[in-house]
Specification:
The protein is mainly α. Helix content is 76%, strand content 0%. The protein has 8 helices and no strands. It is globular. The two termini are 44 Å apart. Bound molecules: ligand L7CU2Q4V. This is Very-long-chain (3R)-3-hydroxyacyl-CoA dehydratase.
């Protein structure tokens, strides 16, 4: 009996150790990931500042940082995986919408339509994303290391109140500026007749994307407001199942 109890406790200890090892691996990975992403967005911030100081204009800025931006924004897809495997307590849907809309902005709008790359709206969302991500990833990093300075926590849960609407404005104005070029060139569209018998009009697709901000953006914004109340004001929030 005693030996069974001992066996049981050994098994339990083993399971606990496994859990601890797994979470230690997760913490190590997340710490590495967040440090790399903070560094990436800092590099982008410095490249943008250097470009503007040297050239005195925003024209050509997007082209000069495009590769770095595409790399770090695309890598953020990993975050959907973090949620899916449960190593961070965030909804896959909320993260998916946030990350996919950014990737769409980068690859299918700004990168694909050269004529809009010098629009002021592009600079607006680039600056807003960069400030947001430096704050967000450094928040996660310091939080994981249990050394979170209050001003980073404060910035993480207050900046979005201004940054989210500004970022959305930059994104929507950029898509709007792209519409005439998309209509004129018929890019990424499929007209009938074709061998697949399928028709797709990227112009109307972009209009649908713009309209989808109306229901989706408030959900992200209110999610952040709830997080803000939870973290800064200590409110207990009962999460609904996904
Ligand atoms: C195919 C075409 C699609 C087109 C769709 C078009 C519709 C688009 C509508 C949407 C528009 C979005 C526009 C947007 O791009 C504009 C901007 O971004 S503007 C700049 C302002 N933006 C922000 O402030 C971004 C805010 N968003 C986020 O922070 C996240 O993306 C979000 C998922 C929304 C929220 O994050 P989360 O729920 O994770 O909140 P917390 O930060 O409070 O964290 C919760 C817990 O998870 C832990 N966590 C999360 N990630 C990590 C990580 N990487 N490392 C470590 N830990 C992490 C975090 O610590 C919390 O843990 P705990 O609760 O235990 O404390």
């Amino acid at each position: 009996m005693a030996s069974m109890e001992e066996d049981g406790s050994v098994e339990e200890k083993d399971n606990n150790n496994k859990k601890r090892t797994k979470s230690a691996i997760a913490v190590a990975w997340l710490t590495f990931y967040n440090i790399a992403m903070t560094a990436g967005w800092l590099v982008l911030a410095m490249a943008m500042m250097r470009f503007y100081i040297q050239k005195g204009t925003h024209k050509g800025l997007y082209k000069s940082i495009a590769r770095t931006l595409k790399f770090f924004q695309t890598v953020a897809l990993v975050e959907v995986g973090h949620c899916a495997i449960g190593i961070v307590r965030t909804s896959v849907i909320v993260t998916g919408v946030q990350v996919c809309s950014r990737i769409f902005m980068v690859w299918f709008i700004t990168n694909s339509i050269k004529q809009i790359q010098n629009e002021e709206s592009v600079i607006l969302f680039l600056v807003v994303w960069t400030l947001t991500e430096i704050t967000r990833y450094s928040f996660y990093t310091f939080n994981l290391l249990n050394h979170l300075p209050y001003f980073i926590k404060w910035a993480r849960y207050n900046m979005f109140i201004i940054m989210y609407p500004l970022g959305v404005a930059g994104e929507l104005l950029t898509i709007y500026a792209a519409l005439p070029f998309v209509r004129k060139t018929g890019m990424l569209s499929m007209r009938l007749p074709n061998k697949y018998n399928v028709s797709f009009d990227y112009y109307y697709f972009l209009i649908i994307v713009m309209l989808s901000y109306i229901p989706l953006f408030p959900q992200l914004f209110f999610h952040m407001l709830r997080q803000r109340r939870k973290v800064l004001l200590g409110e207990i929030i009962v999460e609904k199942d996904e």
